[in-house]
Amino acid sequence: MKNTKKTTKTIETFENKVKETINKYNLLAKKDKILVACSGGKDSTTILHLLKKFGFDVKAITVDLGIGNYSKKNLDNLVVFCNENKIKLIKVYFNKEFGHSLCFLKDVLKGKGVKLKSCSVCGVLRRYLLNKKARELKATKIVTGHNLDDECQAVLMNFFRNTLEKSARLGPISGIVKDKAFVPRVKPLYFCLEKDVEAYSRQMNFPVLYQKCPCSYDVFRNYIKNMLNSYEANVKNQRFLSTLESYAFKRNPKLKESIISHFLKTLPKLKEKYRQSKAITLCRKCGEPSKDGFCNSCRIIHMLK
Fold it and tell me: Over the range 255-279, which residues count as b (16 or more CB within 10 Å of their CB) and which as e?
């Protein structure tokens, strides 16, 4: 009985945190036509469930990357979840949109000497498709399942790479400028730790495949993720290499939360610094938003040819 009450309390606490994030940052309104970008994983399935539960007008959209059984299983799980919860699911396929699967595109680029990781190719082309389809469907918001761990990793990656302009696009509401060419992207799970999202997903018995994408090996994000998780493990187990580290760890045990808290204080200045003064340029090839003539998606497709 006690465990049941504890589980119920944990679920309520998690759900209230998501509600507070939505309200505090004005991420969504009941009048919004919301498109939830779903991979079939724990994060996107969790936020899809919550927005439906909170009474928002939601549809799900998934981009099938064509990564063998991994993509098939995730799509099957997502279909089951959406059918059970009476949520419309829009399916978009890499094969139909680009002629090939993600794995094939990556291999062709590699053969041509183009040094782009799978995650880079996937990220660019997937964002392109989501924005394009969202406009076609007249959605007013795109919701992604990014959690606090994801954002913390992105902040550190940009810091180490000295790409602060990319950090200016982060935050609970993505992007730097507002333009009708972009459908706003928001992150209601922004303050939820990945471990808490997974715990919620398991408690709710969502049909989810709890494993990494097989194409995400040897990427910089993994090194950052492991570094942060190693820090947390040291704090939990009180394993320190020096007196100075021990002091630092005890003063700041919630590293990820602290990084995001500090980042949000500097984010307004970053957005102001990198905000574009001119109107968004449209790609001369496909008509999608771009920085200078051709969008990144068309650049990748051009490299393939």
Answer: bbeebbeebbeebeebbeeeeeeee
Please count the structural domains in the chain.
1
Task: Write down the pLDDT at residue 284.
Answer: 86
Measured CA to CA, the distance from residue 14 to residue 255 in angstroms comes to 20
Give me the domain span that covers residue 109: 2-304
pLDDT at 97 (0 to 100):
86
List the CATH number of the domain containing 286: 3.40.50.620
Residues forming a β-bridge with 89: 60
In whole angstroms, give the CA distance from residue 125 to residue 298: 9
For the whole model, what pTM was predicted? 0.90
Report the SS3 class of residue 23: helix
Q: Given a cut of 60, is residue 277 above it in pLDDT? A: no
Mean per-residue pLDDT for 115-131? 84
